[in-house]
Amino acid sequence: MPSPQLAVIGGGQLARMMQQAAIGLGIHIRLLAEAPDVSAAQVVPDHVVGDYTNLDTLRSVVAEAPVVTFDHEHVPPEHLRALQAEGHACRPGPHALLFAQDKAAMRQRLGALGVPCPRNAAISTRADLDQFGYPAVVKTTRGGYDGKGVWVVHTAADADEAFASGRVLLAEELVDFRRELSALVVRSPSGEMASYPVVESRQANGVCAEVVAPAPGLDPTLDAAARGIAERLAAELDVTGILAVELFETADGRLLVNELAMRPHNTGHWTIDGARTSQFENHLRAVLDLPLGPTGARAPWSVMVNILGGSVADLEAQRASVLAVEPDIKIHLYGKPVKAGRKVGHVTAYGDDLDIVTARARRAAAMFTDGAPQS
Q1: What is the pLDDT of residues 83-117, one digit of tens each?
Q2: What's the alpha-carbon Rg for the chain, to the nearest Å?
Q3: What is the pLDDT of residues 312-347, one digit of tens each?
Q4: Which domains does the chain have, with CATH numbers?
Q5: From CA 12, how far away is CA 32, in angstroms rounded?
């Protein structure tokens, strides 16, 4: 095989969709996958199975690759510093990834920058939590996602599971928010930057259920503020590639930063079909320092709905039924075994009428989850 131009660490669906973009650009990816049958390993021919926490494994994968990027943010930073010292450009670098890996470090840094965030404090005892006050959201500082490692607590007893976890914890105020927004920006090493339309993210049981692009009825001032926060953080934290900034739009009209992700993000999946350049293509362009692509929308509205595991076990067999009902729907299946509530794919619809586009996307996703078409 020819030498890879890019090494991707992690074999989930994000790496799978990076490969989709890489094919069109003629970029040869080498993948480090957790197992031979994970999502990205099914579509990336040049893959190695191994442990991303093992430095020798990382070295063997990236040996011929000048640039390294990631499907997730969990590679130990000391390993990334070692790879950098050996001549590999890690994008984003460990100095930036820290703020996506560690929520306490992220809150401290954003506070120092004056970026609006929920009130927060590191806690290690119940007395700390009592002093912080109730209600509160308790989070593990590392490793939580899709509602895991997050507890809403109204009394000290509600935090039993959090303290029993043995993890380092952060307490945040329970924000009275109107909705959740996401601002995506892409930045190259040379400093070129572009932002996508701000979207609304709708959650179900702590998991992103659907995304509407652009966020309906968003005040232009808040739209500009959200993009400004994302662009400022990309520059201040020296992020290369995609940065997703998840925000609360509060009931009183403010924006508060909730989470950061330094990789392609679920709230940007709509861009594959709904934007002039997908987040995955622009991530690859950015980390390889190629000129960035335009980020505008192809249609007035795009709606992405996640396919969550349900009663339909064979998603490929269901595909024909979905397309018979919704022939214009864009389907993305991740090659994952179906488990209840697990993200196993997504669908996207776009068009001129938000209600029609939303109904189409929801109907298609429901057919993959429950089988019967929904009215």
Answers
A1: 999 999 999 999 999 999 999 999 999 999 999 99
A2: 20
A3: 999 999 999 999 999 999 999 999 999 999 999 999
A4: 6-90 (3.40.50.20), 119-173 (3.30.1490.20), 176-296 (3.30.470.20), 299-375 (3.30.470.20)
A5: 10
